Amino acid sequence: MTVPRPFSSRNDHPIRCTLWGAMRIWDIDPGYLSRGNLLGEHRELHAILSIIEHDKTGYANHPETRRWRGHDGALRMRHAQLAAEMSLRSYTDRTPVPVSRGNHPWPNTYIDPPEKQFAILARKYAGAPAGRIPLPRTSEELWSHHKYSIMARDPERARRLGRAVARRDLAFSDLASELVELLRVRPSEGGTRNAALHMWGHVSHCRARVPAEHGSEVSAALSDTEAEGGGPSGDPPPDATAIRPGQEANPQAWPLDELLAKTQRRALEIGEPYLIRSTALAELAAWLHAVE
Q1: What is the chain's alpha carbon radius of gyration, rounded to the nearest angstrom?
Q2: How many CA atoms lie less than 13 Å away from 5 in the CB half-sphere?
Q3: Which helix (H) or strand (E) covers residue 5, if one does?
């Protein structure tokens, strides 16, 4: 695996990058982003995509624009990931971006490496609302957030990483970079179903809604203010299609989008902490709706 390097060239200077301002496409999972950063990245992604696809000159030399040039397919996939996270938090994406199922090359550079992105957000969120997933303080926490996402792509890789983390053989920085790269790989349908069934196992026995004393806490972690182009619906994401009678006892028979939607809804209803802190709760759904 080729690990992206920090963005640099002879034309890049720290002062110049500072003057460009804070336009940014994050590389870490959108679940870690606060409402402001999530919606801000969504706006900035549309701007960068428009600059690249319509050959506009404004911000054409911004470091983010330059690193995504030639990677518009991957940029569209990043939009799908943002939109999936927005949907989980009950925001409506009024500006969808089609994305194909092809293998899209991703940038081989970072503005800041993933471990530094976590550090930047930790400073930004000190004493302020953070994202759906709490920022990881240790490799163990980081791995627990990504476990099901990696299981969906490569179960054996997930086992090896889990063992390495348990033995403390992986530095946080190395793990963070590897996880970012792995989440850029499209999971197979079978792998997604396998991970989703494991996730469903966390919530299948629970039916009660979030108790009143916990509901506001869960809601605050997910969505409590209006999004661009539309506001939160006020409810967890609905099932894509109602599960038909007689199927409840056999989740393996459910269509994959229904399985993921039902798992999302149940996790939010009961406030299941492990899944609410899982990248897979949103990002796996992002890969289902790419067009041929």
Answers
A1: 19
A2: 3
A3: strand 5-6
The model's pLDDT over 51-110, given as tens digits with 9 standing for 90+, comes to 999 998 888 899 999 999 999 999 999 999 999 999 999 999 999 999 988 889 999 999
Give tens-digit pLDDT for 136-182. Answer: 999 999 999 999 999 999 999 999 999 999 999 999 999 999 999 99
Select from 262, 270, 223 the least CA-distant residue to 240.
Answer: 262
Instruction: Identify whether the C-beta of residue 67 lies closer than 8 Å to the C-beta of residue 17.
Output: no
- φ/ψ (deg, to 5) at 142: -60, -45
55-64 own/partner pairs: CB under 8 Å, 24+ apart: 59/20, 59/23, 62/20, 62/23, 63/7, 63/12, 63/17, 63/20, 63/111, 64/23, 64/24, 64/25, 64/111
Write down the pTM of the prediction. 0.83
- Report the DSSP beta bridge partners of residue 6: 110
Phi-psi label, residue 230: left if phi above 0, alpha if psi -120 to 50, beta otherwise: left
Both structure tokens of 137: 């303080």
SS3 state at 87:
helix
Is 248 strand, coil or helix?
Answer: coil
Helices assigned H by DSSP within the chain:
14-20, 35-53, 63-68, 72-88, 114-124, 139-153, 155-166, 172-182, 189-203, 212-222, 256-270, 273-276, 280-286
As a whole number of angstroms, the distance between CA 182 and CA 146 comes to 10
Residue ranges of domains in the chain, CATH in brackets = 5-124 (1.10.440)
The encoded tokens of residue 268 equal: 């939010």
